[in-house]
Amino acid sequence: MASQPTGAGSSRDDTDSYLGLSAEAAGERARTQGWSTVRSLPPDAIITMEFLEGRLNFAVRDDVVVRCWAG
Question: N or C: the chain end with fewer CB closer than 10 Å?
Fold first, then answer.
């Protein structure tokens, strides 16, 4: 599995720390941690599997982050 991006602090950013945050709060936090792209998706979204360095993905249900992963 590919590692997280090396941008300002993101390599040390714990993706589990986003769980339970509102989508807006998670997005703001991710950008301050150095993620260049933040993507919010419904939990059952069909997405491609390409890895994009610097991207953080959120699965959001009822405006709460329920899953978070890099790439």
Answer: N
